[in-house]
Structure formats: structure tokens, C-alpha cells
Write a structure and sequence with these properties.
The complex is a heterodimer.
Chain A lengths: L3 E4 L2 E5 L4 E7 L3 E9 L5 E8 L4 E4 L2 E6 L4 E6 L8 E9 L7 E2 L3 E6 L1
Parallel strand pairs in A: 2-11
Antiparallel strand pairs in A: 1-3, 3-8, 4-5, 4-9, 6-7, 7-8, 9-10, 9-11
Chain B lengths: L3 E4 L2 E4 L5 E7 L5 E7 L5 E9 L2 E4 L7 E2 L9 E3 L8 E8 L7 E2 L3 E5 L1
Parallel strand pairs in B: 2-11
Antiparallel strand pairs in B: 1-3, 3-8, 4-5, 4-9, 5-6, 7-8, 9-10, 9-11
Classes of the chains: A mainly beta, B mainly beta.
């Protein structure tokens, strides 16, 4: 099975609200990354957080990482219709391996 | 703008045909990846490469094969396509560990 699992599977919010999604993983990691996918096209990288970091910000995005619980969360503040997309977490294993494994994703719908 | 390209974008072929999906990147990245994704579903890693002449199988067993003769090129081949191969195939590349991956726009394959 995949390294990362997202929760919830789907999320519907009103424009201006915050969206929070979670990712859990199974083995030790070097870093955890979040990506966005619009309408089944290629993925776009959003943010990378290393295993020794606990929180990271990028614009309206806030990512936290709890390595003791093997989990991460992505918060999108003040959501916009353009944030409607699927969001995936991906992990780099801690051993010397370049495999990049993705979770199942969270589909976010922002209603105008 | 990511410099990674996949061709064709869409392909409809008959059962039993041999096909090659092309993926090229101009960023000089050593690490390249192939993922399979059904609509609205998770990404499954099927092949990856550390560099020239290196290929590895991913998490999902696949009947496809890959080659890496040049840094910039990572084609995926299906010797005999079947309806079960109908899916979207996404190619990605990155410089190394702890770096972001860049994705192509994908090839949507339909086998009839």
C-alpha cells in the first residue's frame, strides 16, 4: 500500500473558510511534500517540510509535521474558488532511496 | 514552468498493440518516475530511475517496462496493451532527495 494516507477523502467548504487535511505515513521519512492536482492533470509542488522541521508556511499554506505520530497536516487559509483541486502528500523514505510515494489525496471543493 | 513533457497526451489503441509513452525533461534531473492514476484516485508508483542505466520497480506491479539510456529521456513501453491498462500515466523528475518533483501533463491511455 502507499506510504501516505490522506484524510478526509473529500472536503467541501465555502469561499473564505479554512481547509484542513491530514496525511499519515508508515515508515521513517526524510521529508514530506504536498502537491496539488487540478482536473486530473499533472501535479504541482506546494511545499516541502523536512523531518527535523515542525511547521512551515508558504503564503496561505501552513504545514505541520509530527514525526512521533507519523502525520502531517495542510491548512489552506481564506480559501478561494481557485483552490478547488485534489491535494496529495508524498514522502521520501529515510534510507538511501529516491522512491517518492504518494497517498490517496483529498479532493477539496470551494463553493463561491 | 516545468520543462518536462509527455507525449502523446491522449491515446486510444486496440488490444494487443505495443505502445511507448514518451517522457522527456530538459532540467538535467537524475531521478525520474512513472505513476499510474485512475480518475480521482491515488497515484501508484510503477517505475523509477536513479540515473542513466538504472531502473527500479515501484510499489504497484506493472506489465510495463522502462529504459533510461539518456538522462533526459524515460520512456515506458507496454508490449501488448490490454483494457486493464486503461489509465492515466504521469511522468515526473527531480534533482535528488529533499527536492521537489516536477510533473508532466500526463498521458491518458484507453485500450479498447
Amino acid at each position: 500500500s502507499q506510504q501516505g494516507e490522506e484524510d478526509p477523502q473529500a472536503l467541501s467548504i465555502q469561499e473564505g473558510e479554512n481547509a484542513t487535511m491530514n496525511c499519515s505515513y508508515k515508515t521513517s521519512i526524510n521529508n514530506l511534500q504536498w502537491y496539488r492536482q487540478n482536473s486530473g492533470r499533472g501535479l504541482v509542488h506546494l511545499i516541502l517540510i523536512r523531518s527535523n522541521e515542525r511547521e512551515k508556511h508558504s503564503g496561505r499554506l501552513r504545514v505541520t509535521l509530527d514525526t512521533s505520530k507519523k502525520s502531517s497536516s495542510l491548512l489552506i487559509t481564506a480559501s478561494r474558488a481557485a483552490d478547488t483541486a485534489s491535494y496529495f502528500c508524498a514522502t521520501d523514505p529515510s534510507r538511501d532511496d529516491y522512491k517518492l510515494s504518494f497517498g490517496a489525496g483529498t479532493t477539496v471543493t470551494v463553493r463561491a | 514552468e516545468a520543462d518536462i513533457y509527455q507525449t502523446p497526451r491522449y491515446l486510444v489503441i486496440g488490444t494487443g498493440k505495443k505502445i511507448t509513452l514518451e517522457c522527456s525533461q530538459t532540467m538535467g534531473h537524475d531521478k525520474m518516475y512513472w505513476y499510474q492514476q485512475d480518475p480521482g484516485m491515488e497515484l501508484h508508483l510503477i517505475h523509477y530511475s536513479y540515473g542513466v542505466n538504472s531502473t527500479e520497480k515501484g510499489d504497484l506491479s506493472s506489465e510495463s517496462t522502462v529504459s533510461r539510456i539518456r538522462t533526459e529521456h524515460f520512456p515506458l513501453t507496454l508490449e501488448s496493451a490490454r483494457p486493464s491498462h486503461t489509465s492515466q500515466y504521469l511522468c515526473a523528475s527531480r534533482r535528488g532527495l529533499n527536492t521537489e518533483a516536477f510533473f508532466g501533463q500526463g498521458t491518458r491511455l484507453t485500450v479498447v
